[in-house]
Amino acid sequence: MAHPAKKQTKHSRSQLARLRKLCRSLPETVEVEAWGEPTFRIKGKMFAMFASPDTHHGDGRTAVWIMAEADERDLLVQAAPQQYFVPPYQGKSGWIGAYLDESTNWDELEGLLREGHRLRGEKKPRRA
After folding, report:
1. Least CB-packed of 4, 18, 29, 95 within 10 Å?
2. Are 48 and 66 in contact (CB under 8 A)?
3. Where are the domains of the chain?
4. Helical segments of 45-94, H only
5. 10-120 is classed in which CATH architecture?
6. Angle, nearest 10°, between helix axes 106-121 and 10-24?
7. Per residue in 16-57, pLDDT tens?
8. Within 13 Å, how many C-alpha atoms sit on residue 17's CB side?
9. What is the pTM of this model?
């Protein structure tokens, strides 16, 4: 059963447009709707997911979940808990959540998206 697309506020539409622009600038990125939310993928693997404010994904705030290394995620969450969080479901795999609001550092966010894109796009070595 497909999830219906989430309703967006004027603010969340604006933040999503900016996020889309950043994600689509990365090579081979494809946008796919999943769980009623826009997700961004490379080679079929998700590296970022928009989180609508009116769902448990955003938990009342517009956000994005990004593939990350657990160590980097932990440092960012500890340094700026008002801006970063450990998202449900994906958090245990190292993902980081970033709130999208007036205090968002879009240059830093772009770096996180590039790193998530790189991590997901890497080929894993074959086992011998």
Report:
1. 4
2. yes
3. 10-120
4. 70-79
5. Alpha-Beta Complex (3.90)
6. 50
7. 999 999 999 999 999 999 988 899 999 999 999 999 887 654
8. 7
9. 0.85
